[in-house]
Write a structure and sequence with these properties.
five-stranded mixed beta sheet, 179 residues, Rossmann fold, binds S-adenosylmethionine, alpha/beta, 5 helices, two-stranded antiparallel sheet
């Protein structure tokens, strides 16, 4: 079996086409949303498959945060998503995986999207607290979030009575047609 580890292949995620590949299985997790040209990168990953080979892509989709409560948290996430767009990150890529693979003629395309439900003080809340704290300077400097919204979010992350949902991790797989 010949396996391409997509994450370790900068070549696969570049916008330059790769030669058709012999790989039985190609996968990339949480990478394509960072890549400048996700369409070209997906094309390279698909091109690396042998006829009948399988591909599995796993990427985030921030759909669940659109129903976050209280409304101030939706405002926070809206600012976060505006910041990410400004930084070239596509946090809505998950929903595009299936149509992207279909556009390349792949067969047997299926997928799932799964989120986590968490409360303040949980590991997920700690993850977000640390992430937002680390990025705070850039988030504010971008003009997309302000200190008051960030402080409100961090306060929720410390409140065990606050329950919410996080990223929808979207996993989609498909198979290259047999030759
Ligand atoms: C959120 S992490 C995911 C890491 C790992 N794949 C996982 O699932 O745990 C994003 C990764 O994408 C890598 N990355 C970002 N831009 C990339 C690019 N243009 N080509 C290849 N890798 C890239 C980063 O170095 C980082 O390791």
């Amino acid at each position: 079996m010949c396996v391409l580890r997509a994450l370790s292949s900068v070549k696969a995620t570049s916008s330059r086409p790769v030669d058709p590949g012999p790989f039985d299985f190609v996968t990339a997790r949480a990478v394509l949303h960072h890549v400048a040209d996700a369409k070209a990168a997906t094309g390279n990953l698909v091109a690396s498959l042998r006829p009948g080979g399988a591909i599995l892509l796993i990427e985030p989709d921030f759909l669940p945060v659109s129903v976050a409560e209280p409304i101030e948290m939706r405002t926070f996430w809206s600012g976060w998503l505006a910041w990410s767009r400004k930084r070239g990150i596509d946090y809505h890529l998950g929903r595009t995986l299936a149509p992207r693979l279909a556009a390349y003629g792949l067969k047997e395309i299926e997928g799932t999207a799964e989120t986590a439900i968490y409360n303040g003080g949980s590991q997920w809340a700690d993850y977000w607290r640390e992430t937002i704290t680390e990025l705070r300077g850039d988030l504010v400097q971008s003009g997309k979030l302000n200190d008051a919204l960030i402080d409100a979010f961090l306060a929720q992350c410390a409140d065990p009575n606050w329950w919410t949902q996080t990223i929808a991790f979207t996993a989609v797989h498909g198979r290259a047609p047999d030759s």
